[in-house]
Design goal:
It is globular and about 85 Å long. By secondary structure, it is mostly helical. Helix 14 packs antiparallel against helix 16, helix 14 crosses helix 18 and helix 17 packs antiparallel against helix 18. The protein contains 23 helices and no strands.
């Protein structure tokens, strides 16, 4: 394909991704499912180039920025608070899934070796960060549940890929179980060490940068700075990326300027949106090629249906059984676990959130040529991804039936406002210590008025029951900003001011409107 045609296809690909995702959100459909369906249909249209995801491209090119974008927006404090539950899912459940699905696949797929079956179990073990985050944001799940699901999906990729490397070695040679355990420990230790090291060094460097462009440029290559060295040292590159993202996200208020933080947030949200949705479209576009390979395996259609059903049931059953065991441990185990655990409805909800995605499809292409029924296993991985995506559609119904409480948005807004008032009080105290008496009284008075308003509004709430003073202020101020922006645009149209002045005032209004939006009540995660 010539360069011009390649560019045209890339532009078309992005356009389809944005359009389908936007329309799906407007009508309330699951964007990942719709993108897979659209890609699958398009893959059979004559003239559409055959799409084949290179596993190295996915592992080295797509996964690092995807995981970094998710981890840098994930609260390190929340992950640390729920670390026991996250580890039970990201390590314990992955190992349990590899064993259960491995034996089930070995039992139903003709002439498949046990090592190859365990390798396939490792392929389908990790949940998908993208799909889980999208569902969590759309359903307004309890914050505690969201933290566990996001933490699981961030960390279980590393466990699954380490298990996959061990089983691949078993396919092509004889392995020692102690060597497998040693490789796992090495991968974890090196991955964490490299992630922390890269995060620490970059934090020092970024603290010296004052230009948002330089800071953003360095941030864009951070995932690869963590991933590549960890892989070279036989560690987990994925774990290194996640650790560095969590560390830098936690340190960002002290190492970055406000402009740099805003720019980084927008950039990574854009990258995450394009990559995560493009991946699901890619999954659909691969269907025609995957089917062609599956037909060569010699397994009949009837056998394929039975195998697909058994594997999907094994995956769902393994997750459900593990959640029953862990929930029982939390409910009836030691006092420390009972205080930190979750209840039965939460455990059931987690068991229905086992959606697979890009890691599964990338990992299945890492299977060596010596793997029996390699092409059929690639098709089976596609079935697992689509099947779990469809299973995820039942999650809203499950959440409603379980009557899990949604986040208390009013309480969260109140906590945020109280914290902001506390910060304003600290600012006033600092102002009093800095004022010398030589300043213009109008400047000092304006600073005091702005800082005192919020604290006074919280101490003396509005007599209205439907909304308090800060919310009312935000509503009115936003309407004023719209009028101010319109006035600036009219002045621009009349040519009364230079464009530099117009752009500066518009940027000032945009920054204030963004601040007002950030301080308003949060209605979801996304």
């Amino acid at each position: 394909m010539d360069p011009v045609a390649t560019i045209v296809w890339i532009v078309s690909f992005v356009l389809v991704t944005v359009t389908v995702t936007g329309l799906s959100r407007r009508v309330g459909w699951s964007a990942p499912v719709v993108l897979v369906v659209v890609g699958a249909v398009v893959s059979f249209i004559p003239g559409v180039p055959h799409i084949e995801l290179e596993p190295e491209l996915v592992l080295y090119g797509l996964l690092p920025p995807l995981l970094f974008a998710a981890s840098i927006q994930t609260s390190f404090v929340d992950v640390r608070a729920r670390r026991d539950g996250i580890l039970l899912l990201s390590v314990g459940l992955v190992v349990f899934t590899v064993i259960v699905v491995g034996f089930a696949t070995w039992w139903v797929v003709p002439s498949l070796t046990l090592a190859a079956a365990f390798a396939f179990g490792a392929v389908v073990a990790p949940t998908d960060t993208v799909a889980v985050t999208a569902i969590a944001g759309r359903l307004h799940l309890p914050r505690r549940l969201v933290t566990v699901l996001e933490g699981e999906s961030l960390l279980n990729d590393a466990t699954a890929l380490v298990a996959l490397n061990a089983t691949i070695a078993a396919i092509v040679s004889v392995v020692n179980p102690w060597a497998i355990a040693g490789d796992f420990v090495l991968a974890v230790v090196v991955g964490v060490a490299v992630g922390l090291g890269v995060g620490w060094v970059l934090a020092i460097i970024r603290k010296q940068l004052r230009a948002p462009v330089l800071d953003t440029s360095l941030g864009l290559i951070t995932p690869y700075l963590a991933f590549i060295p960890a892989q070279f040292l036989h560690g987990s590159g994925i774990l290194a990326v996640v650790v560095s993202g969590l560390y830098l996200g936690y340190r960002s208020p002290t190492i970055q300027t406000a402009e740099a933080r805003i720019a980084e947030s927008i950039n990574w949200r854009t990258i995450q949106f394009l990559l995560e949705n493009a991946v699901f479209l890619f999954i659909g576009l691969e269907l025609s090629g995957i089917l062609a390979g599956a037909f060569k395996s010699g397994i009949t259609v009837g056998q394929t249906v039975v195998i697909s059903v058994v594997v999907l049931l094994a995956i769902s059953l393994a997750r459900f059984v593990w959640m029953v065991l862990t929930t029982a441990l939390y409910r009836y185990g030691p006092q420390r676990l009972r205080e930190r655990g979750w209840n039965w409805p939460t455990g059931i909800a987690v068991s229905f959130a086992g959606i697979r995605g890009v890691v599964t499809l990338a990992a299945v292409f890492l299977l060596p040529d010596a793997t029996p029924h390699k092409e059929f296993l690639q098709f089976l991985a596609f079935v697992v991804v689509v099947g779990t995506l469809l299973e995820g559609l039942a999650l809203p119904w499950v959440i409603r039936r379980l009557k899990l409480p949604p986040p208390d948005f009013a309480q969260e807004a109140s906590e945020m406002q109280r914290l902001l008032a506390e910060a304003q009080t600290a600012g006033l105290e600092h102002l009093d210590s800095q004022v010398t008496g030589d300043e213009d009284e109008r400047v000092v008075q304006r600073l005091r008025v702005n800082a005192v308003f919020l604290a006074d509004a919280l101490e003396n709430p509005s007599p209205k029951e439907d909304e308090d003073v800060p919310v009312e202020y935000q509503k009115l101020r936003r309407s004023m900003i719209r009028a101010e922006r319109q006035a600036v645009l009219e002045a621009r149209a009349e040519g009364r001011y230079q464009e530099l002045a117009v752009r500066s005032v518009l940027a000032f209004l945009d920054a204030e409107e963004s601040a007002l939006k950030s301080s308003g009540p949060k209605k979801g995660l996304m």
